[in-house]
Amino acid sequence: MSLVEQQPAYVLHSRAWRETSVIVDLFTLYSGRVALIVKGARKSSGKQAAKVALLQPFTPLIVSFSGRGELRTAHQIDAAGPPLSMLGQRLYSGLYANELLLKLLAIDDAHENLFAYYQTLLGELANKLPLEQCLRPFEVHLMDELGYHIALDKEFETGAPIQADGYYQLRPLQGLCLFEGQTSSLPLIKGSSLLNLAAGDYTNQECLKYAKYMARANLDQLLGGQQLRSRTFFQAMADQTHSSDQGDN
Asked: Same domain for 166 and 192?
């Protein structure tokens, strides 16, 4: 039986199992995504509160576990810091990131750089940085870690440099092609915006609009038609806010 000790982790998702236990999906620093049985997690012991209170998203953890296969057994779970506070759209943005990791990462496939990017994202969300500027770079890092780097400064077929005054179309999971036709059913992306994004500029609103379109197109291909619950909740919240604003007017 393989024992893994004292590994940093975050909860991606948890669910009740049998009478008092929990199955929890974690994103860990050195083991990647793992699923653990936490026995007795929903049962209080003496003056100690139920361990399930620790097994919440956005709480930094230190975990030890053992076993082989897709479902392991937790031996120890401790908080490594206070939970990060997120409300409203920031909460759903964090859950969106969790859902992407849960659906796209393979079991036992370590991504140490991505773990650091994820920690950065959570810190930015908790510190109330602009949402789009938090999410778009994380999506790019996730795609890169999964092996789908999309070059934004050159065409993927010819390798020709992106021209600032040109217009381009995205081929999901492949790259960008110069648009030379008259009409198109696909969105056209300004070359100048692509160059700004390639340089890491996520402050311009037009650039962010293109970055969101490209991230969604690429990730939807990877998800293969799987729906994201967090995206649905986020849209419902946005619609509700919009309706309230109209009512106030």
From this structure: yes
Burial 157-187 (b: 16+ CB within 10 A, else e): eeeeebeeebbbebbeeebbeebeeeeeeee
Q: Looking at the structure, do residues 62 and 166 belong to the same domain, yes or no?
A: no
CA–CA separation, 234 and 242 (whole Å): 12
Q: Could you give the angle at the alpha carbon of 84 between the alpha carbons of 80 and 85, nearest 5°?
A: 150
- Give me the number of domains the chain comprises: 2
Classify 248 as helix, strand or coil.
helix
Q: Which pTM does this prediction carry?
A: 0.89
Interval 193-236: pLDDT, tens: 999 999 999 999 999 999 999 999 999 999 998 888 887 776 66
Backbone angles phi, psi at 45, to 5 degrees: -130, 105
